[in-house]
Amino acid sequence: MEIGVPAASKKIVVTLQACELSSFHMNRQLLTSAAQLAASNRRQFLTSVGLGSLFFAVPGAFAEALIRTPAQTEGPFYPDHLPLDTDNDLLVINNNITPAVGEVTYVTGRILDAKGDPVRNALVEIWQCDNSGAYLHSKDTNHAKQDKNFQGFGRFITGTTGEYLFRTIKPVPYPGRTPHIHFKIKQAGKELLTTQCYIKGHPGNEKDGIWKGIKDEKQRNAVSIDFNPLKGAKAGELAAKFDVILGLTPAA
């Protein structure tokens, strides 16, 4: 299966053989290819890439072993005015050439239902503070320090395999909270889940009331994810994988 990536002068094609690669290696290979693109091409990659072969999933497999993703508070900083650009690349706004400040991170994962089946046509929204700890919200007390080049909010609609992809920054702490990224999952206009993901092993987690509020250790571990160096990356990019397991089976 071929995935086309527009480039400044030619189309770059990433070829993935779903039958030969495990889901992990397929994910890493695709992200590595993205990281190796020139900076001017990365945004086009994110907005145009077909992700049908990003994951090799067996519908319903091992559903009994799935850990349901716990619901978490939306918090006070869901954007009160959505940005003009709401795509899945939070590092560059529209056609600007200046990227946001922060550790570049590719966040991927799948949206699965309670049976372990991929959820198609789910709208995945994420939002987080910028590298200075400022949210895209008029009542954020850090608003004066806001990185005007950080989109702060992004959306992605899942395909048949339930996968999503965002390019953003590694989350940072702000007063009172450990680093985290907010997620909201919707389908057909209905909210299915609001949650957050965290940096696995971050010292701030044990002091964070919301993270500690997840009493089930397995659920707490499920929302605490690794942010690892992206293999082959030239500029220190990171990769993180966060699968969201819904506690219900949404309508198709």
Key traits:
252 residues, alpha/beta, Protocatechuate 3,4-Dioxygenase, subunit A, 5-stranded mixed β-sheet, 4 helices, 25% strand, globular, disordered N terminus
Structure description:
The model is unreliable at 1-45 and 47-58 (pLDDT under 50). It contains four helices and twelve strands, in the order ββααββββββααββββ. It has 252 residues and is α/β, with parallel strands linked by helices. It has a single domain (62-245), classed as Protocatechuate 3,4-Dioxygenase, subunit A.
Summarize the structure.
The chain has 4 helices and 12 strands, in the order ββααββββββααββββ. By secondary structure, the protein is an alpha/beta fold. Residues 1-45 and 47-58 have low confidence and may be disordered.
Estimated share of beta-strand residues = 25-35%
Output the CATH homologous superfamily: Aromatic compound dioxygenase
Helix content: 10-25%
- Quickly give the structural class: alpha/beta
Number of strands: 12
Number of domains: 1
Q: N-to-C terminal Cα separation, in Å?
A: 25 Å
Oligomerization state: single chain
Gyration radius, rounded = 17 Å
Characterize the largest beta sheet: strand count, sense, and whether it forms a barrel: 5 strands, mixed
How confident overall, as mean pLDDT? 80
- The stretches of 5 or more residues where confidence is low (pLDDT under 50) are 1-45, 47-58
The H-and-E topology, N to C, reads as EEHHEEEEEEHHEEEE
The coarse overall form would be globular
Distinct helical segment count: 4
